[in-house]
Structure formats: C-alpha cells, structure tokens
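Crash report, auto-generated. Payload:
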Amino acid sequence: MKQNMNLKIDGVEKNILAEVIDKKIWFKLNGEVYSYDLVELSQSSHAQSKIKSKSPDKIMSPMPGKMTKVFVKEGQAVVKGDPLIVMEAMKMEYTLKSDIDSTVEKVLVEVGQQVSLGHLLVQLKAEVKK
Amino acid sequence: MKQIRRVAIANRGEVAVRIIRACEELGIETVLLHSDADIQTRAYRLATKTICIGPATTALSYLNIEANINGALAAGADAVHPGFGFLSENADFAEQCEKAGLIFIGPSSDAIRKLGDKVSFKNLAKKANLPLIPGYEGENQSVDVLLTEVEKIGLPVIVKAAAGGGGRGMKLIRVMADAKDLIESAQREAKSAFGSSTVFLEKYLEQAKHIEFQIFADSTGHVVHLFDRECSVQRRHQKIIEEATSPSLTDDLRRRMGEVACTIAALGKYKSAGTVEFLLQDGQFYLLEVNTRLQVEHPVTEEVLGIDLVKMQILTAQGSFVFDSKDVRIPRGHSIECRVYAENPYLGGVPSTGKLGLVQWPEGPRRRYEYGFESGDTITSHYDPMIAKVIVWDENRPRAIQKMIRTLKDSTVFGVDTNIPYLIEILNHPEFQSGKMTTRFIETYFAEALKAPAEDAQIKKWAQQIYKNLKSGGATVASSVNESISPWSSFWRGV
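Recovered output after restart:
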C-alpha cells in the first residue's frame, strides 16, 4: 500500500510518498527514487548484513537467469579476465569473468540451470604467490 | 480495397497497446495473441478480445507461427499486426498469413525476403551501386570459414544475426583471440531470439553515427521518406535514446541519404512502414540494413511530423492510404525518446524484476508515454525489461533535452530499479548535448556501471523514519493516497 506521510528530520519537514513492496520500502526524495530492505532498516546500523558478496573468489549470479555456457572445470587454473560462465537473462547474454588469478575450486551450476540473483555459481581459490 | 474489421496483434507490451489504440480510433476491433505469462498486462486489459497462444517461452508462443495464425483465425480476425521484434520481420509468417487469407499489416513476404534478409538486401544494394560497408554474408556458416573472413575484412569486425535486429545476437570482435567465442555466442543468441543461427560479418566503423530514415510506401507502392532519426546512443548495440531529426545532417546529406533510402525501398517493392539504417562517418554514409517493420522509436518521427504511422499502416494494408502529392511534409521542432528499462544502473544494467508499485508519468504539453505495464503488474525475466518509452517534443533540441530531463525526474517507478538515473546522466553529458555523439558514446563514457551515490546518512535517516512510521501503523500518516492520484500534482511540483 502506498502512503503519503509528513515527516520531520533535523527541523526539515517533508511530505513523502512511500510504499512497501516485497520486503522493501520504496520512496521518492528530492526527485530520486530510493529503496531499502526492511531487514536492513530493522537492524541497528552497525549490524547491517551485506547481501552482495564483494569477495572476488565467489562468482555470484548478478541477476536471475539461465546458464548457457560453463567454461571451466573444477581444478582448472584461470587467470584474471578469463571467462567462466555465460548466462542469459531477458534474451541477452552476459559473460562472467574472473577478477583474479586462481584455481577453480567448485562449479556449482550446470548448463541450462535457472538461478536466482546472488546464487553462488563458481567458487575460486586465489593463487598463493610462492 | 478490403475494409479491415478485426486485427489480431501478434505481440505484447507497449507496442500491443499502441496498435490497440490505433485500431480503436479507426473503429477496428482487436484480438491480443498472448502468452500465458502476459495476462496481467495493459494490452490484455485493453484489447477487445484475447487468446492465449502458448506458454511464456517465446519459441512456443510469440515466435510460434502456427499458434499465432490459428489464434488469429479462431478469433475471426481478418488482419494481423506483428508489431516489432518477434515475428515482425519473419517472411514465413507474412507468407502464412497471406495464405490463410489474413492481411499482414506490413510489407509483402516477398519484400521482407528481399530487404529484410540482410544477404539479399546487400545483393540488391550492390547491384544498384548503393554504398555498403565491407563484410561477409556467405552461406557457409562454419566457424572456421567465419574466422578466415574476419581476418580478411580486418578488425574490428562485428558479428550480426542475419534474421535479427535490435542488438540481439550482435557481437564485436576486437582481438582475434576472442573471435571464436564471440561468433559462437552470436549464433546462440540469434537462434534463441530469431530462430535462425545464421550470422554475417561486417567491418566495424569506429567513429560512426547511426542515422536512419523512416520510409513509407502507400497502397499504390509510392515510396516517400519521412525524414531521419539519430540513434547513436546505443549500449551493446541496443538503442537507448533516439531523436528526430538528427542534429548532424546537412541539407545535402539529408537529401542524398533520403534518396538512397527511397531507392532501396522501391527496389524491394516495399509497402507500409519501414526503416533504412545508415552509418555516417566523416561525411560518408553507408547502408546498414532495412528493418521491414514499424520501429520501436517511431514516435519521435510522429512527433516532428504530426502523423500516426500505425494508422497509416492499417489503412495502407486495406488499400485505402494514398499520399497526396500536394501534401508537403516538413519536420518541426525536435523530439527525443528514452527507453526506460527495469534494470539497476549501479550494477551495470543488470535486469531488475518484480511487481510494480506506484508508477507515475507526469502530464504536460508534448510529453508522451508508451507503456505496457501499470501498477500491480509484474516485470518478469521472460521478456525484454522495457517498462516504458518516454517521448517529448519541443521547439528545438536544447529545449527538448531539458524537457526530457525534467520529465524523467518527475517520473516515479516503485517496485523495480530503473535506468532513469543513467538516462539523466547521458542527457546531461556535454558530448550528447553537442549532438556529436557516435555509436561509441556509451562505451567511451559509460562503460562502467554508474557510480552509486555515496550512502547518504541523511537519506537513511528518512528511510528509518518512514519505516518507523509504517510500523507504528501510520499514526502520523497524513493521508492514504488515492489510487487515481492526479498526475498534475507532480507536474506542477516540477515547475
């Protein structure tokens, strides 16, 4: 349900249009649309959970889609820039590449598989410089 | 002349809505041929009749010739409008319609084969000595042969779907090492989007502008061009912002390119609306392809000329549209179209899916919206993630740009991320504003994902306030917003 509310922060009063859709709050402020996870807002700010993994050894699906090509096998060595996976969403292909020199530890998907956003596709093991 | 009474629409989304309106204004009934994933859409709600022709998978519904024809016949339609994309440039579909006694609203199957098939188009253009880009369009589609041809043409080389358009199945080869993967990927995309894996190769022009001419042939086959559009702002060969007319054509270029466009259309015995695409570099122009259909960006042409191309198509199909030789068409002012996609601009355009919440498109003079989804509808991952096309018109280009920026800022979409911040960045870019942008504009200036605004503590405070307010049952809620919120409120607020 969308709601229109008068709120005040640090003496500034605004009328804000907000709506909760699928566990997210959407609102418009100064001409920009923002969305926040309800979970994130209910937690104290320093105990925030980061949904997106930033570690380069975890290749996660950046969107819901289908695997069209898997280039690597477990145990295979890859260098930075090597293509790992080709996935398709909304009829466009996206190639996921490795950001690091590493060894493929695990391939968790196969061609044809449908995955959701954030699904772990490939686990890499960063090369240890000797 | 055969009066059309009921048009079957072999398409979805905003173009289906566009066709429904044009038909209704002409007193014609409509039948929407839809997949079972498209019941909760605007076109479904607006069509006179609807028939489900298959599941979400396009190969079984929107790309299925037999299902579309059976649906059209079962609904008692006497004509079919294919829209754009899907079967719109499929000569077999046009031919099957003709055989089934259905009027195909567009060119004849023969004209689609001659001009729409890129190989045959090139042969036709070659014979007539029209300017073409060096390339390979042979029948041998083995990867080895294609690789040899890439070397012959010289990098960079572009791989394209022979049956396609709109960027699908298109790949750019810059280094030989990537060539094999890119060719194979293009073949797969071509197969899944158009049902044919045939690709062809072409020299890639580094600093070219994409200019296209709207052509139209009336019921008698008389071809005219309805001026040009500039579509240089493309990402992965998919147009994002289109304009009419191009800011970079001199009168002389416009005249010469227009003549070439009409010549090729006449050679293909064209009928109805079509687009002749060119690349323009260093004052030289090259024929790129002919799109034998209505174009996504047709509204900008309609805006500068004050015409309705879809109605013209329908009337031409029933044999009752003839150009008046006394009618002088002169474009007035400037029009811009922005494609609003459901995607996250801060993650490099990753598609965003979900249920649409509040959606507001601000009213005002010469602002136009073409959309297929409304509040409560869901943007799925089955199809193109376009939410809407926003079109504005103003007296000149700088004013049209300012109007577009204002319009986008006043537009609101809750429920899915949109590329609106990305579009505004582009519109504000000095090279875009100068009108000098080339097809490399996006990869040059917007190769990386848009930089996400730093997490603003103040914004977060507001979010937490809103959350508290909602959680407390809205004790301080001023008012619940009426469903039919007046779009004027946001328009005036924006002034």
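Post-recovery validation: Chain B has four domains: 6-105, 134-203, 209-445, 457-493.
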